[in-house]
Structures are given as structure tokens and as C-alpha cells.
Amino acid sequence: MKQLVLLGGGYGNMRVLLRLLPNQLPEDIQITLIDRNPYHCLKTEYYALAAGTISDQHIRVTFPEHPRLSIKYGEVTNIDIENKRVYLNDQEAVSFDDLIIGLGCEDKYHNVPGADEFTYSIQTIDRSRSAYQALNNLGANSVVGIIGGGLSGVELASELSESRPDLRVKLFDRGKHILSMFPERLSNYVENWFHSHGVEVISSANITRVEDKTVYNHDEPVACDVIVWTAGIQPSKIVRDLEVEKDAQGRVVLTKQHNLPNNEHVYVVGDCASLPHAPSAQLAEGQAEQIVQVLLNRWNGEEPPAEFPPIKLKGVLGSLGKKQGFGLLADRPLMGRVPRLLKSGILWMYRYHKG
């Protein structure tokens, strides 16, 4: 019996399971999924968990069940590619014939002193829970500093401002406009929404250091009762420590079949993979579809496709509280209630149909 081992129960590996189970998995293949949580987490909704507007249970999706799927709960400590073994904290090592690494990302602090120690994060469910406790224990008129005006920072700031209008939310961003990856008129729409809801947007920010309850912007101190970091990501440390070829962002360079250039049995999916788009749940799922095709071909003794068509991304949707939103669909900007309704519908589909 060959062993396919999946590291991480994120969007990419969930799509692998959805495609292989229940009927596409060859009889001689056993799957082992390794994750530190006993459920898949809807990472795109961590901002709402931290803001306290949804419950923990709302963002859990159960893993599928199958006679040849086993799930191990634990923390991956090392990957020995040469000897085909994955090491876990306080558990026996797991051997593999094929491996898909989907360990996700961590915050990137850009060497800002104190950022790791004195800020909260929404990169994992555990850290989002910690942010929730800190934010929801704040009294009226407390100041929340959010560092980073990308999608995560904007969604957290808007959710907090709507659910806790008694708080003073400051959003720091290094660009002239927040959401720099979107068209300027969409950024202006979001900034106007923030202005009408009392969120202070601090553009052209340069965070030089962070201390306990203090952000230094251009070396000028700004007092904050809670500081949340949403200003960049990097691959997980396990992947950063792998001695394999990586790109300038530290993501693993892959062949067109998504495996290591010198090893057709080790694949990387999601945030840790070097791909021509920014990391996203959509991208991980699209990549997973292609990995499944490659695996099925190789398991059947067939050559996989020499290359795949580019992964098509349908767009990006973001929330501005519970009633408004923004997004890009087929490069068309959307603003108002429609993108918020679309995002809610997609989330419902994912929760109840597992993608």
C-alpha cells in the first residue's frame, strides 16, 4: 500500500481530498492527513473571529471520512525529503511515498524591532483567538492600531469599526492608498467608507519599531491599546528551512507539474509554492486540481501533462462590515451590497459543500 501524506488541512489539501475521495483514489493508495487542528479552518474569515462578530464554530469545516484516509493531529517539526519521512512533535515519524506540502504562511515582520513580540496576528486560528480576547476586552475609547492596509487589515478594521463603534481604529499603510492591488477608485470607495465610520487611515506610514502599546510611525510614537499586524506573509518556517530552490519571497520553486525539480514525489501547494499570482485560497485550490491530475497519471503509470493552462482566478471579494463590500470580478470593480452578498454566498457554499 503506497502512502500519500498531506501536510496541512488548508484549502489546497482539502481540494485534493475532495477530488480523490470517495471514488477516484486507487485501491493501493492510503492517505494520511497531518494537521494541528481537528478540522479545516476558513482562514478568509479569521478577521471576523478576531473582531468577535462570528463564533469559533462558524469557521470550522470537518475533514472528510474514508476507510483509507487517516488523520494525525500534531505539529510538523521537520521534513526529511531524502529518506521520505515527516517528523512530528512528540510522535513517531510518518513515512511517505508521495508528499504534498501545504503548511501555509506566517506573518512577515520585515525586521521591524518588537513587531513579533508586541503585536497580535490573524494568521492562524490560535492567534486569531488571542487577538479576539485582547480586542474584545478593550473598554470604550480604546485605540486599536492595525498595521497593513491590504485585504486582511481592511476587513478587520471595517468589522471592528462596525461592531465596536466605541473603539478608535487606526489603520497604518505604507502606500498612498490602502488596497494598492485594486483600482484607485475602489480604494477611494473603501477609504470613504472608513471616513464615514470613524476609522483613521494613516497613509505613507513607515513603522520603524513597535513597543508595548506603542507604534512608531516615522519614529514618532503613536499610543495604541492593542496592535494587530497584517503587513505581510512568508512561508512557514518548516518550508523556509528546507534545502530546496526558492524564489525571492522564499517560496519553493516547482516544475510545471508542481513537484520539486529533482523529486517527482514531493509537491508543494498554496502559500509556500512559487506561482505567478499572490497567494490565495482560490490559487491553492486551482493548483490542487492540477496536482490531483498529475498524481492519478503517475499512479497509473502514465505521463502527466507536460504543462497546464494558467490557473484562472475568478476575482477577489472583501467585506466592509456585514452589509457592504468590494471586489474585482473578471477585472471589473464591484462596490456596495453585491460583493458582500457574493462573498456570503461563496462562504456558505464552502462550509456546507466543503469547497
UniProtKB/TrEMBL annotation:
GO terms for biological process: aerobic electron transport chain. Residues 3-282 form the FAD/NAD(P)-binding domain. GO terms for molecular function: NAD(P)H dehydrogenase (quinone) activity. It holds the Pfam family Pyr_redox_2. Keywords: FAD, Flavoprotein, Oxidoreductase. Gene3D superfamilies: 3.50.50.100. Its cofactor is FAD. Belongs to the NADH dehydrogenase family. PANTHER family: 64 KDA MITOCHONDRIAL NADH DEHYDROGENASE (EUROFUNG), APOPTOSIS-INDUCING FACTOR 1. This is NAD(P)/FAD-dependent oxidoreductase. It comes from Bacillus mesophilus.
